[in-house]
Task: structure prediction
Amino acid sequence: MENSMCTVTIGELKKQYERGTTYQQIADEFQNQYEAPIVLVLVNKYRLQELHKRVKEDSTLQFVTTGDQIGHKTYERSMSLLLVKAVYDAAGHDKIDKVRIHFSVSKGFYCTIEGQIELNQAFLDQVTEQMNEIVAQELPLTKRSINTSDAVKLFAGYGMHDKERLFEYRRVSKVNLYSINEFEDYNYGYMVPNTKYLRYFSLHLFDEGFVLQMPTAEHPKEVPPFEPYEKLFHVLKESTKWGDMLGVETVGALNDKITHQDVRETILVQEASQEKKIAQIAEQIAGQRETKIVLIAGPSSSGKTTFSHRLSIQLRANGLIPHPIGVDNYFVDREKTPRDKDGNYNFECVEAIDVECFNQDMQNLLNGKEVILPTFDFISGRRNYDSKPKKLGPNDILVIEGIHCLNPALTSHLADENKFRIYISALTQLNIDEHNRIPTTDGRLIRRIVRDARTRGASAKKSIGMWPSVRAGEEENIFPYQEHADVMFNSALIYELAVLKQYVEPLLFAVEKDCPEYMEAKRLLKFLDYFVGVGVDYVPMNSLLREFIGGGCFQL
Result:
């Protein structure tokens, strides 16, 4: 007879539970030991489970809370379902054509509503009240699995045509749907057990829509003040409208272009649009004769190097002579590099740069002096001075690239009127469907995995493992200064994930199941399964994408 009891290990504690006990029951027992709500559980280290699942065998459990990144994403997804239901409830289903969750703004999501309603504060208050009522009722988020073909018909009936189109390309036979009472939707990823977990939020009218503001993983029970980055928002909005104009709002629409239409035209139009923007930036710089220093900054895998090369070509077309300079060549000697809290060298902080030397060299160049610029030897950890002397002529301009270029501390000794600041980032405008976003960090991580494997021989496991520290460095050293930019450039290409898919999937499949990076690799593989792949033949040699996949015309 099968033993009805299972041994469950939580930390140092071993306890006996009846086979079939839900993880929710166990989590409730331990919740008082955690400050943030428990929303998921890791079974035997690497199998992520929702709390409605049941104990089947002896196992080790680790609780995941909204204070963890995985749990925080679960909160955001679940909150999106609650929001969409509340909008339909407040307005009436017959008056709503579409609710779109677009992209991240402040600490939340920018959303718009299409239909026969006036989006004003009174309506937003109705939605807030409806959301709070649903939270107070502690309604379960019910999950069911149906055939993919049935899901296509179901969402056609709901009028959610983005999902109908998306599921036409699903290879798996089943689709998981979630519902709150009668309202049913598809959500990419795991969800919280019931609505009582979703009490922390606020809604803010903004631009043509509104923002659903939510807590951060660092402070999971506090809704931060609404503080939008205006410049960044308008770049994201412009990119979204451009995608709409091209007829590529979602992954399903992109797949249609790839399978039923000429994707080559989509690629070339996107590339032409980026070249046009680079040319406009160069014209703007050339029109400001006092500008002698172009400063380019952006987070990891934004395509800064290729962008600086393409900008330099456009500057030449405007009669200027650009001189590229990498701030990394001004690293302090290795033993002088600051260390992080774990005792590792912190190459991300501005103190890792010899700011005084950098400013002195740049000022001497601007004053017409001859300067020998350093190159940093990353093997020895020392600067070398074996290059030819550089001297600026009347039409010469410095093009400086580095993560700190928008930080005033880096160029504190240089006159502001001589500077032109550019912020570049890969701001993904494509979403899975109208309710499921593609975070910009996912696009950049996939770019980085592909590039690191090609140029450094690094495994996907290593790239994924390093990503949290890379992101922490960006939060501290890059994002606080992005609004200082004179212009922002979005380097994301609407078609790129369909190309990167072929490069990154083998790398992700190589991540072993018994390592901490496996869950992230598995999540990215599931995400990429939405895309129909595209070959590289139509990708131009000067494309920003070539920085990652190779085969470009620039020596990087």
Observations:
- The CA atoms of residues 327 and 402 lie 5 Å apart.
- The domain at 5-65 is CATH 3.10.20.30 (Ubiquitin-like (UB roll)).
- The chain has a mean pLDDT of 93.
